[in-house]
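Hi everyone,

Forwarding the result from last night's run.
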Amino acid sequence: MSAPIEGLKESCATRLFEMKTDLLLRQTRLRLPAFSAGRIEISAIEKGGSDRRFYRVRCSTEQSLILVKYNLEREENRHYVRIAEFLAQRGIRSPKVYFHDPEEGLIWIEDLGETDLFSFVDDDWLTRRALYHSALDEVAKLHQLPETEWNDLRGNMPPEFTAALYQWEQNYFFENCLGRVFQFDNSTLSELSSLPALREIAEELASLPRVLVHRDFQSQNIIVRKGQAYLIDFQGMRPGLAEYDLASLLFDPYVRLTAAEREELFSYYLERRGLRANPPGLRERLRFCAMQRLMQALGAYGFLGLAKGNRQFLRHVPAALASLRSVVAEEAELRPLGAALAYLPLNVAVG
C-alpha cells in the first residue's frame, strides 16, 4: 500500500506547488506588467535555513528577477526593503528592489545570478583574494557610515547587539549544539554556560561603540557578479561590532581559510578602514566575536538539523567546531569549555 500512498503524496505536493506558482505568476503580471509581457517561467530556489521562499521568475534568457515570499509574522522580514533602499542610497552594492507588497509578503528584486563567494571555494587564492577584497570593500563602506546616517533606520532594524543578545548566542550554542547534537546532560550544560568569562565577554563586547553590521556576512550571502561582490540577506542588519562581520567571513564554516589567508584579509580590511596595523584590543575583539559567531552558527546547525529536520546543516558542524576549539583554546578562563570541546568527535551523522 505504501507505493500508491507515496505517489498520491507526490501528486498532491506537485499540484500545490503548481497552484502556488500560478498565483505568484499572476501577482508578477499584476505588479510588473512591463516585465511580464511575454511567457513567464517560475522556478523555486532552495536557499539556506530561512523561513522565506525564493523563486526565479524568467521572461526570457536575458530577463529575470527574484521573487521573495516572506513570513508576515516575522518582523525581521519586513525590514528587508527599507534596508535595501538605504544601502542603494549609499552606494553599497546589493539587489535593486522592483516592487514590495507588504500585505502579501512579496518582494520582487533584481536577479544577480547564482554565483556566490562560496562558489569559488576550489579556485586558486589569487582569484579568491580579489573577490574577498571586493566583499570587504562593501562591508567596510557599511562600517564607516556615521551613526547620524543610520540613526533613522533603527525602527527598521532588529534590536542592536547587547550583552543579552551575546548571551543568547552563547545559550543557543549550549542548548542546540552541545545539548541536541552531542547530548550533553543538563548539569554539564549548566556548569559550562555559567562560566563567568562568558558573561564578561558578552558585557565587554556590548560596552564598545557600535557601527552598522550585516550580521550574517558569510560566503553564501555574498553574490559575485562580473567580479564584483554584492551583499544579500541583510535583513538582520543592526548596530554591533565591525569585528563580528569580519569574524563571520574569516571564520566562515563553509570555507576553510588558511591562517596566512585569514591574516592577509585581516590586514586588507584594516588598510581599507584606514586603521593602524595593530590597533589596541582589536585582535582580542576579533577573537571574542569569532567565538560568538561560531557559537551562533553551531546553535543554528543543531536547531535546523534536528529540531527542524533539515539534517544537511549538520555536515557543517565539524568545521565550525574545529574553529571554535582553536578560538576558545586561546582564552585561559574558558579552559573548562575548551576541555569539553576537545573530546567531541569531529564527525556528525547527517543521514
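Residues 256 and 335 are 25 Å apart (CA to CA).

Cheers,
N.
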